[in-house]
Amino acid sequence: MEEKTPNVISTRGLSKTFGNVAALKPLNLEVHRNSIYGFLGPNGAGKTTTIKLFLGLIRPTAGSATLFGMDSVEQSVEIRARIGYLPQEPHFYEHMTARQTLRFVARFFFKGPRETIEDRVSEMLELVDLAEKADRPIKTFSGGERQRLGIAQAQVNYPDLLILDEPAASLDPIGRRDVLEVMSRLRKYTTVFYSTHILDDVQKVSDTVAILNKGVLVAEGPIEELLAGSEGTTYLVHLKGDTESAVKLVQSQPWVSGVKTGSHGSEITLQVGVTDPQAAEAQLLKLLVNSPAVVTEFRLKQYELEDIFMQVVEGGQDVRK
Amino acid sequence: MSGNSEFMMVSESGWRRGLNNLLDNEFASWWKTRMWWVQCLIWTSIPAFILGNIIFSSKNFEFSEGIMFYSIFAGVFPAIGVIIIMQDALVGEKTTGTIAWVLSKPVARPAIILSKVVSNSVGVLTTMVVVPGIFTYLLLSVASKALLNPVPFIEAWGIFFLCHLFYLTFTLMLGAFFTRRGPVIGLALGLLFLQQYLIGLLPVFRYLLPWTLAIPLNNESEAIVPALLMGQPVHSYLPLVFVAAECVFFVLVCLWRFNRDEF
After folding, report:
1. Does this complex have an ipTM over 0.95?
2. What is the pTM of this model?
3. What is the CATH number of the domain that holds A78?
4. Which residues of B touch A (CB under 8 A)?
């Protein structure tokens, strides 16, 4: 039975092994209703394996996944009735036209009325700008057109959960922007779970991010928290003049966890890690202004998602929130 | 689902979920493409041409000669066509990825297999058995200068269909086990052509394999179709029972394997 839960997706120790290869190591995830959940990872990280487990296309070796409170193995068909899915490389029946494809998909969900189904199909074709090519066989479509058709077919049933596997991978910049707009617009009605390696897109639209590396979840959390830094709050300070005594002063504070220094022309840069953000906010700038050094720049360090990604993927660091 | 209150939702459930839509799609691939008339043309024109040649070029046409040709041709050659069509039914969709896409929709796995069995069976029955059978019946009636009793012919079409259903379900079952076309078509054609030797090695196979449904081993009474069409006693109806049971068995194995498959 479906549970009343704020989570659309919930996994407990979900894992998958192919032969001797552990494609996904025990995964614990929670995806909240109406969130846009970015699922990141390098190639072979296990993103598509996870999605296939959600859809019941493959079976877990251990653990479980529940979607809408239903088990992904036992109630797979009921789950798929509420999902829209765009595969990484969409494959459709080549002899069908775009309109026939959308009609075919719609009829897995709706048996009528015919006019309403046709209206929905036309609406989806308009949405992805394929109305003029609606009656051409898919075998004549370009990669981008297939991708757009994939996005349309994933939405035709008004899904409660939209799972997109690399939705913008084969799109040009305008196509990518359109996909991101569609995702943002859909947030009101649905939950979006999407995998990607385009970090810029994730930063633009996601509210929650997970990073998977070699089958292991190495980072997860609201995007603001991840971007705030995995090493706690860090301040970035540029100083010139008598910087040595200023550095010593900062280092002596009990709420400072570490200071990294570097040079930047005639200035030095400090990255000040703090253990008590409130104390730092109240005192750090005052300390520096009152020191013999001249403060030329002072700000809270904002990590780019790429920093976090490279840190956890290359450095193997676990920054789960 | 938001925004779908104007729609009538699909009510199929369990193993039937998605079956109607899949059947429509599979039937469309037979009847809304050139597939049906191409198959009709092949399996009607070749025997009609050869049989017509036998009938009209021979001064003393023997009815039994025409029946033997019809039994052998209709028992073997369309089976090759069935194997060629069916070897792609599952493997083709696995390799292109369309099966994974379809399975991402609310579709029960048995519905996929059953839609392929039903639609292809109807296609084979119509284009490879009934249409060529009607032409052959008319041709033999013309050659006999009288309208022949249609009942034995209708019975013969049923047996030809069972024979082709054997290869259809066998090839589909192989498709559930393999991801490449080679082993599927190789094993299916291998069985088709090697069964006469298997029967020679182990005579019990004459009851288990479809060969003797249409093709005699030594004399025509040993095969069911020529015996029926020539009004002779049938050696044994057991092959009909066993072949029918094997068709069911192949479908069940196919369902079991496909249910466990990962995409």
Report:
1. no
2. 0.83
3. 3.40.50.300
4. 1-4, 6-11, 17-18, 20-21, 24-25, 29, 33, 96-98, 100-101, 103-108, 262-263
